[in-house]
Amino acid sequence: MASKIAEAELDSVEKVFAAQEAVPSWKDQLTFRSFVIGFLLTILITFIKVKVSLNTEIIPSLNVCAGLLGYFCLKVWTQCSSQLPFTRQENSVIQTCVVAGSGIAFSGN
After folding, report:
1. What is the mean pLDDT of the chain?
2. How far apart, in whole angstroms, are the C-alpha atoms of residue 73 and residue 100?
3. What is a single molecular function from GO for this protein (predicted)?
4. Of 65, 82, 83, 85, which has the most beta carbons under 10 Å away?
5. What are the pLDDT digits (tens) for 60-98?
6. Domain coordinates in residue numbering, the chain
7. Angstrom distance (rounded) from CA 25 to CA 54
8. Which pTM does this prediction carry?
């Protein structure tokens, strides 16, 4: 019975994204708004990582925070300005920028 429910849910998810192309071109994935939000969140996450590590001597991994904050910022950006809705790939670009940038900045500390 559980496999029937899982198959039904899988079918519905596939139907939602059936009209979209599988993977957009790299030019559509790397957008200005994803880099701006990625840069701003990199600064924020870097300060948080440095502050926490100096106080507790533990290096936090804030990957999930970067993904959630990126999603939230893009959602607010698209609602405030009448632009196209953001894609899953843009959220991945933001998370990658934040994790890589804060890692490099923290390592240089």
Report:
1. 77
2. 18
3. oligopeptide transmembrane transporter activity
4. 65
5. 777 788 878 888 888 888 888 877 777 778 888 888 888
6. 28-107
7. 41
8. 0.69
